[in-house]
Amino acid sequence: MKCPACSRATLSLFFRSIFDLESNILPSTNSARNAASSRPFSTARRRLQSYGAFNDNTRVWATNQSPEVHGAAETEKERPAWQVEKEAVKRKLNGEAWNPRKKLSPDTMEGIRHLHKTQPTKFTTPVLAQYFQVSPEAIKRILRSKWRPSDQEQEDKLRRWDKRGEQIWTNLVELGVKPPKKWREMGVGRSRNGEKPRWKSGSRNQVVVKDSFGGDDFGWAEEDLIPIVDGKSGTQSSRKANVPFSDRIGI
């Protein structure tokens, strides 16, 4: 005959052993689940901590900088763009002055060829380079060049030069400079609205206008430098600038 007390005690022992087993297994599973769920939060917390440390280091570095550095940074932001570009060009040139290559006009290059052809012993390459303020290599290239403009190119060049000269002398007239006869005949410096031009007033010729090529700097007179070729005989004749006008016209 079975005893109910014994069977009840056996069942209680059996269920207690099962519950103890689950209690031993469940905590490890829950801890792993909690660790997996808390991993992203811990990573984000670490990122926030590192970002805060970076900001603190940045503040410390900024406070340790000298006032000159702060002032230069603020001035760099406030300066206009053209000043920034000017400083960049100055740094690129290593402090040297801006010295662009000089460009000679086609008429000047033709004059260089003519001078060297007529008097090669006098107008040598170093002399021409010194007078026209270019390098000797540039003079050599000009003398070696065989290119000549066509008639259409020559007409276009003259038209451009006339337009450029008209613009230049129009600006000089506003400063009180009397234009040459050629430009006066073209209408430069003409009176407008019945007002007298400035170059006809008492403040005329207040601006000094010089040629880009100065023979006086090298001790050369204009008549000695630029020869005039007589069309009839083909010989060279010099300008008689010192002869009075009455003697030249035979009075």
UniProtKB/TrEMBL annotation:
Protein origin, superkingdom: Eukaryota
GO CC terms, sorted: mitochondrion; nucleus
Record keywords: Transit peptide
Presence of keyword RNA-binding: no
Biased composition, class Basic and acidic residues, residue ranges: 184-198
Compartments where located: Mitochondrion
Major subcellular site: mitochondrion
Segments of this protein annotated with the region Disordered: 184-203, 230-251
Purpose: Required for respiratory activity and maintenance and expression of the mitochondrial genome.
Family of this protein: Belongs to the RRG9 family.
Entry-linked PANTHER family: NEUGRIN
Name the record gives this protein: Required for respiratory growth protein 9, mitochondrial
Native organism: Didymosphaeria variabile
